[in-house]
Design a protein that fits this description.
Layout (H helix, E strand, L loop, with lengths): L4 H22 L4 H13 L12 H19 L3 H27 L1
Helix pairs in contact: 1-3, 1-4
Length: 105
């Protein structure tokens, strides 16, 4: 894949998407994410593998690998842009709102 402006933007979108997915699964209280953490803990019997969904340092490389592979092998198909663009945008919006709320204090 030739590195172009589109590819560079894709890398940034992919990074933000992986960051959002990582936060969603490891930290958010969103009920489906919390449910998935509980199920993962039960499946792994709270063993060493249960750490995966509680540690952003542990999970982020795997999400990054999956999103990067999807980007590369799909040649940035529109479905890649739709899914990862949505996650990246939602993460940026959440960060802006977080900083805006801290300014109100």
């Amino acid at each position: 894949m030739e590195l172009t402006l589109i590819s560079a933007v894709g890398v940034v979108v992919g990074i933000l998407s992986a960051a959002r997915l990582t936060r969603l699964l490891t930290q958010d209280s969103f009920p489906p994410a919390a449910w998935l953490r509980v199920k993962w803990d039960a499946l792994t019997k709270d063993g060493p593998w249960s750490t995966l969904v509680h540690c952003h340092w542990c999970l982020a490389p795997w999400f990054t690998l999956l999103i990067g592979a999807w980007m590369y092998f799909s040649h940035m198909h529109w479905t890649w842009w739709a899914f990862n663009g949505w996650l990246a945008a939602s993460y940026l919006v959440a960060m802006v709102v977080e900083r805006d709320e801290k300014g109100d204090a």
